[in-house]
Amino acid sequence: MTVPDAPPPHVMVRADQVHKYFGRLEVLRGIDLTVNAGQVCVLLGPSGSGKSTFLRCINHLEKVTSGRIWVAGDLMGYRQRGDKLYELRDKQIAAQRRDIGMVFQRFNLFPHLTALQNVMEAPLRVKSEPREQVREQAKALLDRVGLADKAASYPAQLSGGQQQRVAIARALAMRPKLMLFDEPTSALDPELVGEVLDVMQGLARDGMTMIVVTHEIGFAREVGHQVVFMDAGVVVESGSPREVIDNPREERTRAFLAKVL
After folding, report:
1. Contact call for residues 219 and 200 (beta carbons, < 8 A)
2. How far apart are CA 168 and CA 103, in angstroms?
3. Which residues make Cβ contacts (< 8 Å) with residue 17, sequence separation at least 6?
4. What is the pLDDT of residue 2?
């Protein structure tokens, strides 16, 4: 099969007919998606609709069964030779992932490192950047997420919302072109959700390209440039927040929103 041409420079992410099977179970059934640089794309949908799996396919944490995904013009996980695709070596895939930050439901911080050390870890180990430069950058990032006073605190000494903000700062330390968020507030107590969403809104204002899996409809309406509603492994509809949230075309979208709003 001939691979489509790479997308133009203004496109940060393009997915073309992405399918994903786990055994006989087809979780993604032909996902097409385009996200332009500087946009915030919000993925909505019920549990089990394939949103998180698709997010993990973007940075090749999950291998697509068929289809293609490009990030910043690079075909993720593969190289093309003639009309065939060959999977890249682990080191090459890791190099591609450096440009993609990811924040999970669970914070996944190193418990034996302070907040500052958690943020410093990847630039030191992966990029081998000068320690003092990395330290100053990490301090600035903690300040950016409102945690300058928690630099010396360990994860166990932080609230869930604070840990998630450290996780965001840690992802930003690699200076990614794209940020992926997989239900970043779902593990938080309700009163802590706002502090994480505020940080994400700030990133959006700064022009960070983001793809966010969330059930926070208010965030999707206020911050999203594009809202995608998924169900049963397909894109049911996509468009602006006004189109998808306020005036959905599809009955399945309307039924979902009626339950969560």
Report:
1. yes
2. 6
3. 30, 31, 32, 66, 67, 68
4. 52
